[in-house]
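QA checklist item 7 of 12: single-chain prediction sanity check.
[x] sequence parsed
[x] length recorded as 288
[x] structure emitted
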Amino acid sequence: MDVLSEFFERTNLQGRLFFAGRVDGALMLDKPPGMAFIHLVERGGLDMIQPGMPKVSISQPSVLFCPSSCRYQLRSSSTEGAELICASFQFGKGTAQPLPLGLEETLVFPLDALGHALPVIRALVEEFQDQAPGRAKALNLLFEYLFVLLVRRAVQDGRIAGGLFYALQDPRLGAVLSRLHGEPEADWSVERMAGLAAMSRSKFSAWFSRVLGVSPMGYLSGWRMKVAQDLLRDGVPIKVVADAVGYSSQASFSRTFASLVGCPPAEWLRQDTREAPTVKVRITAADD
C-alpha cells in the first residue's frame, strides 16, 4: 500500500453526507474541532464569508475543499438560491493536537477544471438523485474518493505546499512518516529518521520542521498519543498501551499523556465519547 493510502487507513478516513438541498439564505455550520468539509455546488451562486477575510464568490458549479480550521458561512448570492451536497471528514478525533494536514484555507475548484474527477462527481450526483438501496454508503465512499483526488490535485498545483498531505507525497518524508506511523513503539531518534530519508541530521530536522510545522520528535509524540487514544477507546489496558506506543513504563507514558492531552489516560477515557462528532446545520432566510 502507498504511503498516502496507509495514512488514510490509519486515520480511518470517512466521508459522511450531512446536508443536501437548496440554500436560499445562509448555511451556518457549527462543526467540531478537526472536521474538514467538501461542498459540491451543483447550481446557483454562493458567497463564502469568513470572519476577518475577504468574501469569496462562487458563481459556477464548483467543489469547495474546506480545512478543519476554517470558520465560515455560505450565503446564497443568486435569486434562485444554490443547490448543495455537503460531506464532513474527521481526522484524529480527540487527539492531543490537530494533525498538521497542510490545508490552511478553503480551496475552490470549478468543475470544468476537474476533468479527472468529473466521472466521480457525476456518479455522486446521480447516486444522490437515486433512491437505490445502499445510497448513503455509496455517497460516503464517493466523497472519500473525491477527497483523495482533491488532495492529489491540490499538491500537484502547489495549493498545498506543507503539512501531512504534502509530506506524505514527498519521497523522503513519506518514507519516514510511513515507518513512524507503522512502528510508533520503536526506539526512534532524529538520527534514525534522517537515515531513512538519506539526509544529514541537521538538514532532515530543518526540512521536517519546515514542512510539518513541528519537530520530528514532537510529531512522533503527538502520533503516539493519537495511537494510544485509539487503543484506549478499544478497551486495551493502559499498561499494554504504554508498551505499544514505545514507553518503558506505565508511569512515564501517563506523564507524557497528561502533559500533551491535558489529563491522565484513565480520566481522559472517562470523559471521551464514542459517539461520532456531528455537524449542526442552520439555514437562515435570505433577508436575515
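[x] summary fact logged: The chain has a mean pLDDT of 89.
[ ] second reviewer sign-off
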